[in-house]
Amino acid sequence: MKTVYIADTGVFVRCGGPDNDKFQRLRRAVRQAGVSLRIPQRVYEELGGDPVADEYPSGTIPYSNGFEEGWIIVTDELDYTNSLVSTVMDEARRFIANETGRDEDITEKTDTALVGLAAQLLDTGEADHVVLLTTDKPAGRAAESLLPQHGFSGSVEFRYVSVEYLETITADAFR
Amino acid sequence: MAQSPSRSGRPPIQQLQTVADLLETPALAQLYAYILQHGPVTVSEMIDELDIPQGTAYDYVQNLETSGLVEKTSEQRPYEYDAESIALTLSTDGETQTITPALIAAVARRGEDEDIDVYIERHGLDGLAVALEYAYEYVKGSVNHRITARELDLSPLEAEIILQSLEPVATEYADAST
After folding, report:
1. Is B155 exposed, middle or buried (0-12, 13-18, 19+ CB in 10 A)?
2. B152 touches chain A (CB under 8 A)
C-alpha cells in the first residue's frame, strides 16, 4: 500500500517558535519512517508569502531545510484538466462554504487545494491512501466526506495537527 | 456605554479603571484569569502554578480584592480567593467591543507567548478581541485560517499564527462564548 502524506500551512506554524523542538521532532519522525511530506503549491506560497510574519516567533519556520533534505516536497500545480480533481474541488468549495456559513464564492482555490491534491494522488494511482495533516478542519472534513463518494472509500484520513500531536510524534505516525 | 453586571456593586467607570490595569499588566491578568478558572485558590497555589514572584502575587491579589474583582472566600489562613467574571461592553462611534474574561486571559498570555504580543503590537487590543472571536470558530471547525485571513485582511500565515496562539484560550473559554 502506498500512503502519501500531505501537509498544510498549519503544520509548519505549529512547528514554529524559537527553539523549533517540534520541527526537529517532526523531521526525525518523517525521516526515520523514510517518507516525505507533500505540500501543495498554494501552501508553499502561504508559507513564504508574508514578510510581516517574520516578526512572529512562529513565523520563522525553517521549512526550507526540509526541501534540501528531501523530506518536504512541493508538488507540481494541480491538474485541473483531470475531471475528478476539478469536480472534487468544486464540491469541496460548496462543502467548506456550508461548514463555515460563508458564500460559496468567497472560498478560493487555496481552500480546496488539499482536497484537490488528495483526489489527484488517488486518481492517478500515485497513492492508494492519503493522510492529510492540517489544522484546517473544514478542509479535512471535506476530504474525508467527499472522496469516498468517488470510489475512494477509506482512502483518506484527516489528522488534526494539535500541539500534543506534534509533541509526541514519532515515526510510528508514518507507518 | 459601559455595562458590567457586578456582585461587587462597583460602578462601571471604576471597573473600567481596573480592567484597564488588567489589560496593561499581563501578570495581573494572568493571576485574575487563573483565579477565575481555578478558584477558590490560595495565594501559594497561585505562586506554585504561575511564574509570579511571591511579593508580586500578594500585591496583585490585594489589588484585585480592593477593586472588587476578587474576594476572600474563607476567613481562616491560608485565605482562599475566588474571582468574579466581568463583561465590560464599550461602544464608540458605532463600534462595540466587549472585554470578557477570555480576552483578559488572551492578554495574560502575551508575556509567555510572543506571537500574541506581536499581534497586539500590530493590531491593538481591539484586533485581538476580533481574532479571539475567529479563534472560537476555528476551534469549532467553522472557520479556517484562509477565510479568517480574507475577512480580517491578514496574510494566511499571520492568521494561522494568531489562531493557533489563541486556540488554548478559545478552547478553555468555549462554553462562555455561547
Report:
1. middle
2. no
